[in-house]
Amino acid sequence: MAPNATPASVYRRGLRLLLDKDIAAWIDLWDDEGVFEFPFAPEGWPARLDGKAAVAAYMRGYPDHIDLHAFSSVRIHHTARPETIVVEMHGTGRLVRTGDPFAMTYIAVVTVRNGLIVHYRDYWNPLALPAGGASDFAGTGAATRSAAPGRTGATTVTPG
C-alpha cells in the first residue's frame, strides 16, 4: 500500500485479500517488525507473533482451514491516535475440514504506519466455534477449537 494509506484503507484492503484467499498479498500489508496478538488465544495457541515472517508462517495455511465468504457489519472507529483504529465486524464462511459453518464476531485494534500494519490485536472468540473445527491450524494440533485471526459506518464486504 502507499505510505500515506489510511489505517481504514489498509484494513479494508486486508479484508478483501482474505476473502480472495491471497495470503501473500495480505502479508505484504505488514511491516517487517509487525506484531500480531491474540489476547484470548486458548492454551496451545500463540498469543503473540513477532515479525512479518512469523505472521506469514502462521497465516500461510489459513485458507486450508477457514473458507471465508463475507465480512459484514464492518465498523471502523477512529481513535485519538490517527494511526490506530478499532474495528468491529462479523465474519462468515465454513470450516474446510468439516464443512461446518463458520461465524465469528471480531474486535480488532490495528495500528498502521507508513501504509503498513505495525500492530494488530485480534480479539477473536475461540469458544464460538465447534470443537475440532480447525484444530491443526497453526500447526499446534493441541487445540480443540479453531483459531481465526483474523476487521466509518456499517458496510458488508463480499467476494465478487
TrEMBL record:
Residue ranges of every copy of the SnoaL-like domain listed in the record: 13-120
Organism annotation: Streptomyces subrutilus
Origin organism lineage: Bacteria, Bacillati, Actinomycetota, Actinomycetes, Kitasatosporales
Name listed for the protein in its UniProt record: Nuclear transport factor 2 family protein
Location of the region described as Disordered in the Swiss-Prot/TrEMBL record: 140-160
SUPFAM superfamilies noted in UniProt: NTF2-like
